[in-house]
Amino acid sequence: MIRIQFEFAASHRLHCPEESDEWxxxxxxxxNNPAGHGHNYRVEVCVTPDLDExxxxxxxFEVVEAIVKREVIDRFDHRNLNEQCTEFEELxxxxxxxxxxxxxxxxxxxxxxxxxxxxxTVWETEKTSCTCRV
Length: 134
Known about the structure:
The chain is α+β, with helices and mostly antiparallel strands. It has helices at 21-28, 61-76, 81-84, 95-112; strands at 2-12, 37-49, 79-80, 115-123, 129-133.
């Protein structure tokens, strides 16, 4: 398996517009700040290369790195996720949803390049992360 870590910086606000301001403050605390707040996210992908009959693969660290950079890092880095990323126009940009969206963005491009996404972890802080196993 190929395992690589990446980083991006982004801001967001956790807020459910269908709920009251009080509910949002109680549910999300300081993460509901109307001005938003930022994180230095860390992303780790684990990809299994497809092997041919000679146990060769087109999938390399460089290929994985280029795909993740194009599909996730460049899309989210130094952005306000709520306001600048269509993926979160109607989806709360929690670490769980960032992980799910990143998974969805990576599955097809990695498969087309000869690999399968097996695991994706997004760290929001040193203590908090979300992992998706595929």
